[in-house]
Amino acid sequence: MNLVSTKYNFVLDLLDDIVRHNPPLQTDLIICSTRGEYLAEILAQLDRHHAEHEASTSEHNVGQAGQKTSPISSHILLSPSLYLLNASRYCRLVFCPAITVLRGYLSSYVPKLSDQGHPADGRSLGNGHIVIVNLLRLHHGSSEFTLQGLSRTFATAVSAAHRTNWSLKLVECKDIDDPADPSKGPALWQAEVPLLSGSLKIGEGGASWGRRTVSATRIASRWFRFERANQRDVLEARRWEGIGSDDKILLEEE
User: Fold this and answer.
1) Cα–Cα dist 67/214, whole Å
2) Total domain count for the chain?
3) Whole domain around residue 39: which residue ranges?
4) 107, 111, 207, 212: most buried by Cβ count inside 10 Å?
5) What pLDDT score was predicted for residue 56?
6) Which residues of 208-246 are buried (b: 16+ CB within 10 A; e: fewer)?
């Protein structure tokens, strides 16, 4: 199944969901940026998460014997638990900081295989998940942010998923330093995309076509279904925020 998910505001939310998946699902996480940019974004989000968690915990505990207690636990990604170690075995990170790199990788895409010719976790093809993060942001502001350019990349991604019988998901994440930026995050799917590149020279008869636009959502809907957060997702996320990593292992085993 090919999905566009708009239920994740930040990449940390996506990683939480991948780590919590039970049973663990083989996932190839394709990041449309450099490794350095990705790590900087993750660290900024973890710092923000820690600061907010520490502030809320301190407020809750002030007045109890005149002492403040430190947070019960940090973010699950910073917890050195067997649960996290096991989940990480099923996830592979790939960085594609340019459109040509992304298309080239998807054109020759194959899941990571073991020496025996089977997926590294011993599962058969068809049990995996391809997640592409910020594909739309990568195109935005370039000459490829057109109907033709996006369609070409979407088709290449869908073909890669079809060859392996893996599911495909596209996710756009906000910038932690500027969450309201309309050029980043799920809101980018509402952007109007020109039919033709502005660099193309067209005659007077085709000038009207050059000015026409279509929403990114409409372009993607040819290949993808849109997935949005529901109340169950919100309640589940809140439930996990209130328990430690060791308790999460027990919950998954129930």
Assistant:
1) 58
2) 1
3) 2-253
4) 111
5) 63
6) eeeeeeeebbebbeebbeebeeeeeeeeeeeebeeeebe
